[in-house]
Design goal:
homodimer; mainly alpha; Tetracycline Repressor, domain 2; 10 helices; DNA-binding
Chain lengths: ~220, ~220
DNA sequence: ACCTGAACACCGTTCAAGT
DNA sequence: ACCTGAACACCGTTCAAGT
Protein backbone atom coordinates (compact mmCIF):
# COMPACT_ATOMS: atom_id res chain seq x y z
CA UNK A 1 0.00 0.00 0.00
CA UNK A 2 1.49 3.31 -1.03
CA UNK A 3 0.83 6.32 1.09
CA UNK A 4 -1.36 8.29 -1.22
CA UNK A 5 -1.43 12.07 -1.38
CA UNK A 6 -0.83 13.52 2.03
CA UNK A 7 -0.99 17.25 2.69
CA UNK A 8 0.61 17.01 6.09
CA UNK A 9 2.10 13.71 7.13
CA UNK A 10 1.84 12.70 10.79
CA UNK A 11 5.58 12.38 11.02
CA UNK A 12 7.43 15.10 9.05
CA UNK A 13 9.23 13.93 5.95
CA UNK A 14 11.88 16.61 6.21
CA UNK A 15 14.15 18.22 8.74
CA UNK A 16 17.09 20.57 8.52
CA UNK A 17 19.46 17.67 9.09
CA UNK A 18 17.88 15.45 6.49
CA UNK A 19 18.07 18.28 4.00
CA UNK A 20 21.71 18.99 4.80
CA UNK A 21 22.64 15.34 4.45
CA UNK A 22 20.90 14.95 1.14
CA UNK A 23 22.40 18.19 -0.12
CA UNK A 24 25.92 17.01 0.63
CA UNK A 25 25.17 13.68 -1.01
CA UNK A 26 23.94 15.48 -4.08
CA UNK A 27 26.99 17.74 -4.25
CA UNK A 28 29.38 14.85 -3.71
CA UNK A 29 27.67 12.85 -6.41
CA UNK A 30 28.98 15.38 -8.88
CA UNK A 31 25.58 16.30 -10.25
CA UNK A 32 24.83 20.00 -10.43
CA UNK A 33 23.45 21.31 -7.18
CA UNK A 34 19.95 22.74 -7.22
CA UNK A 35 16.84 23.01 -5.13
CA UNK A 36 14.83 20.94 -7.57
CA UNK A 37 17.37 18.14 -7.83
CA UNK A 38 17.62 18.10 -4.05
CA UNK A 39 13.86 17.85 -3.64
CA UNK A 40 13.78 15.03 -6.18
CA UNK A 41 16.42 13.17 -4.18
CA UNK A 42 14.35 13.63 -1.02
CA UNK A 43 11.20 12.40 -2.72
CA UNK A 44 9.49 15.67 -2.08
CA UNK A 45 8.25 18.78 -3.82
CA UNK A 46 10.72 21.71 -4.12
CA UNK A 47 8.39 24.03 -2.27
CA UNK A 48 8.41 21.74 0.77
CA UNK A 49 12.01 22.66 1.46
CA UNK A 50 11.03 26.24 2.14
CA UNK A 51 9.32 25.14 5.33
CA UNK A 52 12.72 24.23 6.79
CA UNK A 53 15.51 26.18 5.15
CA UNK A 54 16.23 29.52 3.62
CA UNK A 55 16.25 28.66 -0.05
CA UNK A 56 19.26 27.78 -2.13
CA UNK A 57 21.76 30.01 -0.35
CA UNK A 58 20.57 28.87 3.04
CA UNK A 59 21.17 25.27 2.08
CA UNK A 60 24.67 26.07 0.88
CA UNK A 61 25.59 27.80 4.13
CA UNK A 62 24.14 24.80 5.92
CA UNK A 63 26.52 22.56 4.04
CA UNK A 64 29.49 24.75 4.89
CA UNK A 65 28.79 24.41 8.58
CA UNK A 66 28.08 20.73 8.31
CA UNK A 67 31.23 19.71 6.56
CA UNK A 68 33.44 22.06 8.53
CA UNK A 69 32.44 20.29 11.71
CA UNK A 70 32.97 16.99 9.98
CA UNK A 71 36.47 17.79 8.73
CA UNK A 72 37.75 19.35 11.94
CA UNK A 73 37.47 16.17 13.95
CA UNK A 74 38.48 17.87 17.18
CA UNK A 75 41.66 19.33 15.70
CA UNK A 76 40.50 22.59 17.26
CA UNK A 77 41.77 21.52 20.68
CA UNK A 78 45.39 21.28 19.57
CA UNK A 79 47.78 23.15 21.75
CA UNK A 80 51.28 23.71 20.50
CA UNK A 81 53.11 26.51 18.81
CA UNK A 82 51.20 28.97 16.68
CA UNK A 83 52.67 27.69 13.44
CA UNK A 84 51.58 24.17 14.27
CA UNK A 85 48.08 25.42 14.91
CA UNK A 86 48.07 27.32 11.65
CA UNK A 87 49.37 24.32 9.75
CA UNK A 88 46.81 22.04 11.38
CA UNK A 89 43.98 24.43 10.59
CA UNK A 90 45.07 24.67 7.00
CA UNK A 91 45.37 20.95 6.64
CA UNK A 92 41.94 20.42 8.19
CA UNK A 93 40.49 22.84 5.68
CA UNK A 94 42.37 21.04 2.97
CA UNK A 95 40.88 17.72 4.06
CA UNK A 96 37.45 19.23 4.01
CA UNK A 97 37.86 20.59 0.51
CA UNK A 98 39.39 17.36 -0.65
CA UNK A 99 36.48 15.38 0.78
CA UNK A 100 33.88 17.61 -0.88
CA UNK A 101 35.59 19.36 -3.80
CA UNK A 102 32.35 20.17 -5.57
CA UNK A 103 31.21 22.26 -2.66
CA UNK A 104 34.07 24.69 -3.08
CA UNK A 105 32.73 26.56 -6.09
CA UNK A 106 29.40 26.86 -4.31
CA UNK A 107 30.61 28.42 -1.08
CA UNK A 108 33.15 30.65 -2.74
CA UNK A 109 32.49 34.31 -2.24
CA UNK A 110 29.58 33.89 0.13
CA UNK A 111 29.61 35.60 3.49
CA UNK A 112 30.46 33.25 6.33
CA UNK A 113 27.90 33.20 9.12
CA UNK A 114 28.04 29.67 10.48
CA UNK A 115 28.99 29.97 14.18
CA UNK A 116 31.33 27.01 14.13
CA UNK A 117 33.26 28.29 11.16
CA UNK A 118 33.41 31.75 12.69
CA UNK A 119 34.73 30.23 15.90
CA UNK A 120 37.47 28.48 14.01
CA UNK A 121 38.61 31.73 12.39
CA UNK A 122 38.36 33.41 15.76
CA UNK A 123 40.63 30.80 17.24
CA UNK A 124 43.12 31.40 14.47
CA UNK A 125 42.99 35.15 15.02
CA UNK A 126 43.59 34.76 18.73
CA UNK A 127 46.49 32.44 18.08
CA UNK A 128 48.16 34.87 15.73
CA UNK A 129 47.68 37.85 18.02
CA UNK A 130 49.07 35.88 20.94
CA UNK A 131 52.00 34.81 18.81
CA UNK A 132 52.96 38.45 18.41
CA UNK A 133 51.67 39.45 15.00
CA UNK A 134 50.61 43.10 14.98
CA UNK A 135 46.86 43.50 15.36
CA UNK A 136 46.46 45.42 12.14
CA UNK A 137 48.15 42.66 10.22
CA UNK A 138 46.39 39.59 11.54
CA UNK A 139 43.30 39.91 9.41
CA UNK A 140 45.56 40.22 6.40
CA UNK A 141 47.38 37.06 7.33
CA UNK A 142 44.08 35.26 7.73
CA UNK A 143 42.82 36.53 4.42
CA UNK A 144 46.04 35.28 2.93
CA UNK A 145 45.64 31.84 4.45
CA UNK A 146 42.06 31.79 3.28
CA UNK A 147 42.93 32.78 -0.25
CA UNK A 148 45.52 30.07 -0.28
CA UNK A 149 43.12 27.42 0.98
CA UNK A 150 40.32 28.43 -1.34
CA UNK A 151 42.64 28.59 -4.30
CA UNK A 152 43.79 25.06 -3.69
CA UNK A 153 40.28 23.92 -2.92
CA UNK A 154 39.27 25.10 -6.35
CA UNK A 155 42.29 23.37 -7.77
CA UNK A 156 40.80 20.13 -6.43
CA UNK A 157 37.38 20.86 -7.83
CA UNK A 158 38.74 21.73 -11.24
CA UNK A 159 38.55 19.45 -14.15
CA UNK A 160 41.84 17.63 -14.15
CA UNK A 161 43.26 19.67 -16.96
CA UNK A 162 43.73 23.17 -15.71
CA UNK A 163 45.63 24.14 -18.80
CA UNK A 164 44.87 22.87 -22.26
CA UNK A 165 47.42 24.28 -24.70
CA UNK A 166 46.29 23.98 -28.28
CA UNK A 167 49.44 25.16 -30.04
CA UNK A 168 53.14 24.80 -29.36
CA UNK A 169 54.57 25.81 -25.99
CA UNK A 170 58.12 26.36 -24.92
CA UNK A 171 57.98 24.68 -21.51
CA UNK A 172 54.42 24.31 -20.21
CA UNK A 173 53.37 21.43 -22.45
CA UNK A 174 56.38 19.35 -21.47
CA UNK A 175 55.85 19.96 -17.77
CA UNK A 176 52.19 19.02 -18.01
CA UNK A 177 53.06 15.80 -19.78
CA UNK A 178 55.66 14.87 -17.19
CA UNK A 179 53.81 16.00 -14.10
CA UNK A 180 51.56 13.86 -11.97
CA UNK A 181 47.96 14.78 -12.63
CA UNK A 182 44.91 15.55 -10.60
CA UNK A 183 44.92 15.16 -6.87
CA UNK A 184 48.54 14.14 -6.58
CA UNK A 185 49.77 17.26 -8.30
CA UNK A 186 47.43 19.38 -6.23
CA UNK A 187 48.54 17.73 -3.00
CA UNK A 188 52.19 18.31 -3.74
CA UNK A 189 51.56 21.91 -4.65
CA UNK A 190 49.57 22.39 -1.47
CA UNK A 191 52.28 20.91 0.73
CA UNK A 192 54.92 22.99 -0.98
CA UNK A 193 52.85 26.11 -0.59
CA UNK A 194 52.01 25.48 3.03
CA UNK A 195 55.69 24.98 3.84
CA UNK A 196 56.59 28.21 2.13
CA UNK A 197 53.83 30.11 3.85
CA UNK A 198 54.56 28.95 7.36
CA UNK A 199 58.23 29.44 6.89
CA UNK A 200 57.88 32.98 5.67
CA UNK A 201 55.40 33.84 8.41
CA UNK A 202 57.95 32.64 10.95
CA UNK A 203 60.62 34.74 9.29
CA UNK A 204 58.35 37.75 9.36
CA UNK A 205 57.52 37.29 13.00
CA UNK A 206 61.19 36.93 13.90
CA UNK A 207 61.96 40.11 12.01
CA UNK A 208 59.14 41.90 13.81
CA UNK A 209 60.19 40.95 17.32
CA UNK A 210 63.99 40.92 17.08
CA UNK A 211 64.97 44.51 16.25
CA UNK A 212 63.36 47.35 18.21
CA UNK A 213 60.92 48.29 15.49
CA UNK A 214 62.97 50.15 12.91
CA UNK A 215 60.72 52.73 11.26
CA UNK A 216 61.69 53.04 7.63
CA UNK A 217 59.22 54.95 5.50
CA UNK B 1 11.52 54.66 -39.27
CA UNK B 2 12.37 51.59 -37.28
CA UNK B 3 13.91 48.66 -39.03
CA UNK B 4 11.10 46.20 -38.81
CA UNK B 5 11.52 42.45 -38.54
CA UNK B 6 14.57 41.36 -40.41
CA UNK B 7 15.55 37.73 -40.73
CA UNK B 8 19.01 38.41 -41.98
CA UNK B 9 20.23 41.99 -41.90
CA UNK B 10 22.52 43.16 -44.70
CA UNK B 11 25.18 44.10 -42.21
CA UNK B 12 25.48 41.61 -39.32
CA UNK B 13 24.30 42.87 -35.95
CA UNK B 14 26.71 40.69 -34.05
CA UNK B 15 30.32 39.65 -34.09
CA UNK B 16 32.55 37.80 -31.65
CA UNK B 17 34.12 41.08 -30.58
CA UNK B 18 30.83 42.83 -30.05
CA UNK B 19 29.63 39.93 -27.96
CA UNK B 20 32.79 39.88 -25.88
CA UNK B 21 32.59 43.61 -25.26
CA UNK B 22 28.97 43.49 -24.21
CA UNK B 23 29.61 40.46 -22.01
CA UNK B 24 32.37 42.25 -20.11
CA UNK B 25 30.15 45.29 -19.75
CA UNK B 26 27.40 43.13 -18.35
CA UNK B 27 29.71 41.40 -15.90
CA UNK B 28 31.26 44.67 -14.79
CA UNK B 29 27.85 46.19 -14.24
CA UNK B 30 27.38 43.74 -11.41
CA UNK B 31 24.23 42.20 -12.81
CA UNK B 32 24.18 38.43 -12.96
CA UNK B 33 25.76 37.12 -16.10
CA UNK B 34 23.61 35.12 -18.48
CA UNK B 35 23.00 34.49 -22.13
CA UNK B 36 19.57 36.05 -22.00
CA UNK B 37 20.67 39.20 -20.23
CA UNK B 38 23.53 39.53 -22.69
CA UNK B 39 21.21 39.19 -25.67
CA UNK B 40 18.92 41.79 -24.16
CA UNK B 41 21.84 44.18 -23.83
CA UNK B 42 22.77 43.58 -27.46
CA UNK B 43 19.20 44.16 -28.61
CA UNK B 44 19.01 40.71 -30.04
CA UNK B 45 17.42 37.33 -29.47
CA UNK B 46 19.35 34.83 -27.29
CA UNK B 47 19.44 32.28 -30.05
CA UNK B 48 21.25 34.72 -32.34
CA UNK B 49 24.35 34.46 -30.20
CA UNK B 50 24.74 30.82 -31.09
CA UNK B 51 25.68 31.81 -34.62
CA UNK B 52 28.88 33.37 -33.30
CA UNK B 53 29.93 31.81 -30.02
CA UNK B 54 29.88 28.54 -28.19
CA UNK B 55 27.14 29.15 -25.68
CA UNK B 56 27.55 30.38 -22.15
CA UNK B 57 30.90 28.71 -21.46
CA UNK B 58 32.31 29.86 -24.75
CA UNK B 59 31.47 33.44 -23.92
CA UNK B 60 33.13 33.15 -20.52
CA UNK B 61 36.35 31.80 -22.00
CA UNK B 62 36.17 34.64 -24.50
CA UNK B 63 36.10 37.12 -21.65
CA UNK B 64 39.07 35.50 -19.96
CA UNK B 65 41.17 35.97 -23.06
CA UNK B 66 39.92 39.46 -23.64
CA UNK B 67 40.62 40.85 -20.24
CA UNK B 68 43.94 39.05 -19.87
CA UNK B 69 45.24 40.84 -22.91
CA UNK B 70 43.84 44.07 -21.56
CA UNK B 71 45.46 43.75 -18.13
CA UNK B 72 48.87 42.65 -19.35
CA UNK B 73 49.62 45.89 -21.11
CA UNK B 74 52.93 44.64 -22.52
CA UNK B 75 54.26 43.60 -19.14
CA UNK B 76 55.12 40.33 -20.81
CA UNK B 77 58.24 41.80 -22.37
CA UNK B 78 59.88 42.55 -19.02
CA UNK B 79 63.35 41.26 -18.68
CA UNK B 80 64.90 41.14 -15.24
CA UNK B 81 65.37 38.59 -12.56
CA UNK B 82 62.94 35.71 -12.28
CA UNK B 83 61.42 36.99 -9.08
CA UNK B 84 60.71 40.34 -10.67
CA UNK B 85 59.00 38.59 -13.54
CA UNK B 86 56.97 36.48 -11.15
CA UNK B 87 55.98 39.52 -9.11
CA UNK B 88 55.05 41.47 -12.25
CA UNK B 89 52.95 38.60 -13.54
CA UNK B 90 51.16 38.29 -10.25
CA UNK B 91 50.49 41.99 -10.06
CA UNK B 92 49.20 42.05 -13.62
CA UNK B 93 46.81 39.26 -12.76
CA UNK B 94 45.84 41.14 -9.65
CA UNK B 95 45.07 44.24 -11.72
CA UNK B 96 42.96 42.19 -14.04
CA UNK B 97 40.95 40.68 -11.22
CA UNK B 98 40.63 44.05 -9.54
CA UNK B 99 39.35 45.60 -12.76
CA UNK B 100 36.78 42.86 -13.30
CA UNK B 101 36.12 41.22 -9.94
CA UNK B 102 32.79 39.79 -10.97
CA UNK B 103 34.42 37.75 -13.66
CA UNK B 104 36.47 35.78 -11.14
CA UNK B 105 33.70 33.52 -9.88
CA UNK B 106 32.75 32.81 -13.48
CA UNK B 107 36.14 31.68 -14.75
CA UNK B 108 37.04 29.79 -11.61
CA UNK B 109 37.55 26.12 -12.20
CA UNK B 110 37.19 26.23 -15.96
CA UNK B 111 39.89 24.78 -18.15
CA UNK B 112 42.13 27.41 -19.68
CA UNK B 113 42.38 27.24 -23.44
CA UNK B 114 42.89 30.83 -24.56
CA UNK B 115 46.23 30.94 -26.41
CA UNK B 116 47.31 34.23 -24.91
CA UNK B 117 46.70 33.08 -21.37
CA UNK B 118 48.47 29.80 -22.09
CA UNK B 119 51.42 31.75 -23.48
CA UNK B 120 51.63 33.77 -20.32
CA UNK B 121 51.76 30.65 -18.16
CA UNK B 122 54.29 29.19 -20.55
CA UNK B 123 56.48 32.22 -20.13
CA UNK B 124 56.27 31.86 -16.38
CA UNK B 125 57.17 28.18 -16.59
CA UNK B 126 60.18 28.90 -18.77
CA UNK B 127 61.32 31.62 -16.41
CA UNK B 128 61.16 29.34 -13.40
CA UNK B 129 62.94 26.49 -15.13
CA UNK B 130 65.67 28.85 -16.29
CA UNK B 131 65.96 30.22 -12.77
CA UNK B 132 66.91 26.78 -11.57
CA UNK B 133 63.74 25.35 -10.06
CA UNK B 134 63.58 21.58 -10.56
CA UNK B 135 61.39 20.62 -13.48
CA UNK B 136 59.13 18.44 -11.40
CA UNK B 137 58.45 21.30 -9.03
CA UNK B 138 57.71 24.14 -11.43
CA UNK B 139 54.14 23.18 -12.15
CA UNK B 140 53.55 23.03 -8.41
CA UNK B 141 54.93 26.51 -7.97
CA UNK B 142 52.72 27.77 -10.75
CA UNK B 143 49.68 26.07 -9.25
CA UNK B 144 50.61 27.74 -6.00
CA UNK B 145 50.87 31.16 -7.58
CA UNK B 146 47.59 30.55 -9.34
CA UNK B 147 45.81 29.47 -6.19
CA UNK B 148 47.11 32.55 -4.52
CA UNK B 149 45.95 34.86 -7.29
CA UNK B 150 42.54 33.24 -7.62
CA UNK B 151 42.01 33.26 -3.89
CA UNK B 152 42.66 36.96 -3.73
CA UNK B 153 40.66 37.57 -6.85
CA UNK B 154 37.69 36.01 -5.13
CA UNK B 155 38.44 38.10 -2.11
CA UNK B 156 37.88 41.14 -4.33
CA UNK B 157 34.66 39.79 -5.74
CA UNK B 158 33.27 38.88 -2.36
CA UNK B 159 30.68 40.86 -0.61
CA UNK B 160 32.65 43.19 1.58
CA UNK B 161 31.94 41.26 4.71
CA UNK B 162 33.70 37.97 4.42
CA UNK B 163 32.94 37.11 8.02
CA UNK B 164 29.74 38.00 9.77
CA UNK B 165 29.98 36.85 13.39
CA UNK B 166 26.59 36.73 15.05
CA UNK B 167 27.65 35.97 18.61
CA UNK B 168 30.59 36.95 20.76
CA UNK B 169 34.11 36.43 19.53
CA UNK B 170 37.40 36.53 21.35
CA UNK B 171 39.45 38.37 18.76
CA UNK B 172 37.92 38.27 15.29
CA UNK B 173 35.14 40.78 15.92
CA UNK B 174 37.54 43.39 17.24
CA UNK B 175 39.94 42.95 14.32
CA UNK B 176 37.12 43.27 11.81
CA UNK B 177 35.93 46.48 13.45
CA UNK B 178 39.42 47.99 13.44
CA UNK B 179 40.55 46.79 10.05
CA UNK B 180 40.20 48.66 6.81
CA UNK B 181 37.43 47.12 4.75
CA UNK B 182 36.94 46.02 1.21
CA UNK B 183 39.57 46.68 -1.41
CA UNK B 184 42.05 48.27 0.91
CA UNK B 185 42.15 45.27 3.21
CA UNK B 186 42.40 42.96 0.25
CA UNK B 187 45.20 44.99 -1.32
CA UNK B 188 47.25 44.96 1.84
CA UNK B 189 46.75 41.25 2.28
CA UNK B 190 47.76 40.67 -1.32
CA UNK B 191 50.93 42.73 -1.00
CA UNK B 192 51.82 40.99 2.21
CA UNK B 193 51.21 37.60 0.70
CA UNK B 194 53.14 38.34 -2.47
CA UNK B 195 56.13 39.50 -0.43
CA UNK B 196 56.04 36.35 1.63
CA UNK B 197 55.70 34.14 -1.41
CA UNK B 198 58.52 35.65 -3.41
CA UNK B 199 60.79 35.72 -0.42
CA UNK B 200 60.23 32.09 0.42
CA UNK B 201 60.65 31.03 -3.19
CA UNK B 202 64.00 32.78 -3.21
CA UNK B 203 64.97 31.04 -0.01
CA UNK B 204 63.97 27.71 -1.48
CA UNK B 205 65.93 28.28 -4.64
CA UNK B 206 69.01 29.26 -2.65
CA UNK B 207 68.68 26.13 -0.56
CA UNK B 208 68.34 24.03 -3.68
CA UNK B 209 71.41 25.35 -5.41
CA UNK B 210 73.79 25.93 -2.52
CA UNK B 211 74.32 22.50 -0.90
CA UNK B 212 74.96 19.48 -3.14
CA UNK B 213 71.48 18.01 -2.74
CA UNK B 214 71.36 16.36 0.67
CA UNK B 215 69.08 13.34 0.54
CA UNK B 216 67.20 13.06 3.80
CA UNK B 217 64.40 10.48 4.05
C1' DA C 1 2.95 22.69 11.25
C1' DC C 2 4.11 20.68 6.96
C1' DC C 3 3.13 19.07 2.60
C1' DT C 4 1.24 19.57 -2.48
C1' DG C 5 0.35 21.68 -6.86
C1' DA C 6 -0.21 25.59 -9.56
C1' DA C 7 1.82 29.69 -10.89
C1' DC C 8 5.50 33.10 -11.91
C1' DA C 9 9.41 34.82 -13.89
C1' DC C 10 13.14 33.19 -15.22
C1' DC C 11 17.22 30.06 -17.30
C1' DG C 12 20.41 27.83 -21.63
C1' DT C 13 19.97 25.56 -25.96
C1' DT C 14 18.00 23.69 -30.36
C1' DC C 15 15.88 24.20 -34.58
C1' DA C 16 12.75 25.23 -38.37
C1' DA C 17 11.55 29.20 -40.92
C1' DG C 18 12.60 33.45 -43.02
C1' DT C 19 15.63 36.51 -46.08
C1' DA D 1 25.17 33.52 -43.47
C1' DC D 2 22.57 35.42 -39.80
C1' DC D 3 18.53 36.61 -37.58
C1' DT D 4 13.70 35.47 -35.34
C1' DG D 5 10.27 32.98 -32.74
C1' DA D 6 8.59 28.86 -30.98
C1' DA D 7 9.71 25.09 -28.32
C1' DC D 8 11.99 22.26 -24.74
C1' DA D 9 13.51 21.07 -20.48
C1' DC D 10 14.86 23.18 -17.01
C1' DC D 11 15.64 26.78 -12.90
C1' DG D 12 14.37 29.19 -7.72
C1' DT D 13 10.60 31.03 -5.18
C1' DT D 14 5.82 32.24 -3.61
C1' DC D 15 1.47 31.09 -2.15
C1' DA D 16 -3.24 29.29 -1.66
C1' DA D 17 -5.22 24.99 -0.48
C1' DG D 18 -5.34 20.84 1.98
C1' DT D 19 -4.97 18.06 6.47
Amino acid sequence: MEEAYMARPKVPLLSVDRIADAALELVDSGQPFGVNALARRLGVTPSSLYNHVDGRDGIIELMRGRFSREAAGGAQATGGEWHEIVADTMRAQRRMYAAHPNLVPLIVGKTITDPYVIASYDHLATTLVDAGFPEDEVLGVIALLDAFAIGFGLDLASPHDVWQPEGETQTLGRLIADAPHGDERSDRAFDLGLDLLIESLRARLARLSAPPAPVVE
